[in-house]
Amino acid sequence: MNRHEQFAQALLTPGLPCPDGLFSRNGADPASRFAVYRNNVHGSLINALADSYPVTQQLVGEHFFRAMAGLYIQAYPPISPLLHDYGSDLADFIKGFAPAADVPYVADVARLERLRISAYHAIDTPVANPHAVVNQLQQLSSLGNVRLQLHPCVATLRSDYAVVALWAAHQTTDPVARLDPWHGQSALVLRNGLEVEVFCIDSGCVTFINSLNNDWPLEMAMAYALDAASEFDLHQCLGLLINHRAITQIKVHP
Amino acid sequence: MTLSSLPDVAQAQAPGLPRRAGLGLKSEHFQQVLATLPDIGFFEVHAENYMVAGGPLHHYLGLIREHYALSLHGVGLSIGGEGPLDHAHLARLAALVERYQPHSFSEHLAWSSHGPVFLNDLLPLAYDDATLKRVCEHIDQVQSTLKRRMLLENPSTYLLFQHSSLDETDFISEVIQRTGCGLLLDVNNVYVSCINHQQDPLAYLNALPLHSVGEIHLAGFAEDADSLGDRLLIDDHGAPVDNAVWQLYQQALQRTGPVATLIERDNDVPAFSVLHAEARQADQHLLAAAVHP
User: Fold this and answer.
1) A125-254: which CATH topology?
2) Which residues form the signal peptide (chain B) (predicted)?
3) DSSP A151
């Protein structure tokens, strides 16, 4: 085993002894100094996860979160120096983490927080002016061959829990009225200019947005949305996308 | 390249960092910086933080770059790593250099990746011929890819390797002589390492190739103790610059003359005005060094 291999394994595995061949000039036990590196590695990675998942941490408590993050790091250390990507699958880990089984909504809140990070860093693409979008849509004689291109930051999330309300309750210091997490909600996440925004949307709107993202024409996206939820409100959903600058282009194919 | 033929780092790359105090750019200070345009010599950013597709980070850095000189400081290249440099990472660095045209690019004498795993810390190296050859090859590769001279930062360390055959200062001198890179003199790292390894900080400083210094870093440290209860200083960038480090900085400036100096703060980041006050303190020392060389 080469030197860095041994060093790296000892860093990641708290039970392993300090690697061979190390010493301190004052004769101190090298393990007491190796511990600084181990603490740096674990502490900085746990902090990186805590920075990415602040509401998740609040929901389970700091002590629980840091312990869980420590286990995640041992199982899945980073494989890239780009730490904003690190922990992108933490929600899946939480879902399978037995001690978190009685708070099953936490994994979906983690998914929502990850979507917010992705939206924040998403590529910059010019968006269409809301008035121009409205004008252009009003002038169309048929929606059958129209496609709306959404900004790459736009994402949706379906949850069996009140994921948006849970997240929103932790964005304010005001005391929150009792919150029932046990009903399903869906989220729309987008970046409007420089601000990441989160909306609670209905299931029809989720289907509509996902259909647009899959490049279905407007008419088909509407049909799928109505199929998913008969109360789907096209004007409301389209208004949300237009007003929050989520549409980059209207493509009309003859 | 020999020592005598090394160009003065300040002239090696037009335009070079101004010989002023600079600050690490924090996202929480973006708007204040743009609104007030404080008198700061330059800003420094960690390259990896800006390796994202788009969004507010690029938006603000682009605007701030229009008003300030920029130092791009890498923390993830793993120049001392046993394996080859990460080509994708090097390509991302080249793209950032192309986009922002920084006045300086620097990285660390350390390793942080092994195999596929990134350990997110600046880990210590054994100073022997094999490491020297590897580090020099990696620096050559960085400099030829980025088409510019880079600065290499001296590390802060907590342990020593039994099979090191060179002193850290000799190792650094040899790297600089062989590759033509410059030195990013981290005065806090000098102090932290020397306390941790019972060395005289001034002797260590004097043994460094100070003619190659292209930038200085100043930061705060945390205090710990080892198994014997001896002081163990941790380079945590989470406190104001210590008095002992300010003193060592002045002694360094007496030897180097004024050099672009960064106040580094990455943890417990205070209000911008607090950091600005530390930068002004460094500026005063720079002024004194210019007046009384």
Assistant:
1) Outer Surface Protein A; domain 3 (3.90.930)
2) none
3) P
Q: What does the DSSP 8-state code read for residue B82?
A: S
Q: Which of B78, B141, B145 is nearest to B115 (CA)?
A: B78
Predicted confidence at residue B27, as pLDDT, reads 96
Radius of gyration of chain B (CA): 18
Look up tokens 């596929």; give the residue: B116
Tell me the pLDDT of chain A averaged across its residues.
95
Q: Search chain A and give the residue with CA nearest B117.
A: A79
Whether A83 sits inside 8 A of B120 (CB atoms) is yes
Half-sphere exposure of A175 (CA within 13 A, CB side): 2
CATH of the domain at B147: 3.20.20.150
Measured in Å, how far apart are chain A's first and last C-alpha atoms?
65
Q: Identify from B118, B161, B195 which residue to disrupt to test chain A contact, counting A C-beta atoms within 10 A and taking the largest count.
A: B118
Total domains in the fold of chain B: 1
What is the domain extent for residue B190? 3-291
ipTM score assigned to the predicted complex: 0.95
Structure tokens at A77: 């250390």
A26 to B226: CB separation less than 8 angstroms, yes or no? yes
Cα A109–A71–A167 angle (5° rounding)? Answer: 10
Instruction: For an interface test with A, give the residue of B159, B198, B227 to mutate (most A CBs within 10 A).
Output: B159
B96 near B61, Cβ under 8 Å? no
Tokens for A104, please give them. Answer: 């099953």
List chain A residues with CB under 8 Å of B49. Answer: 84
pLDDT tens by residue, A76-121: 999 999 999 999 999 999 999 999 999 999 999 999 999 999 999 9
What average pLDDT values come out for chain B (293 residues) when binned by 10 residues? Answer: 38 71 97 98 98 98 98 98 97 98 98 97 98 98 97 98 97 98 98 98 98 97 94 96 98 97 96 97 97 77
HSE (side-chain half, CA atoms, 13 Å) at B207: 17
Instruction: List Cβ neighbours of B42 (8 Å cut-off, separation of 6 or more).
Output: B17, B18, B20, B22, B68, B69, B70, B71, B103, B260, B262
| CA nearest neighbour of A110 among A96, A125, A129 | A96
A37 lies within 8 A of chain B by CB: yes
The partner residues of A155 in beta bridges, in order of sequence, read A189
Q: What sign results for the dihedral spanned by CA atoms B20, B26, B28, B34?
A: positive
User: Could you tell me where in chain A the CATH 3.90.930 domains are found?
Assistant: 125-254
Amino acid at A28: A
* CB B265 within 8 Å of CB B222: no
- Give B229 to chain A, closest Cα distance, Å: 9
Digit-coded pLDDT (tens) for A37-73 = 999 999 999 999 999 999 999 999 999 999 999 999 9
Which residues, other chains included, contact B141 with Cβ-Cβ below 8 Å and sequence gap of 6+? Answer: B85, B90
Min Cα distance B135 → chain A (Å) is 14
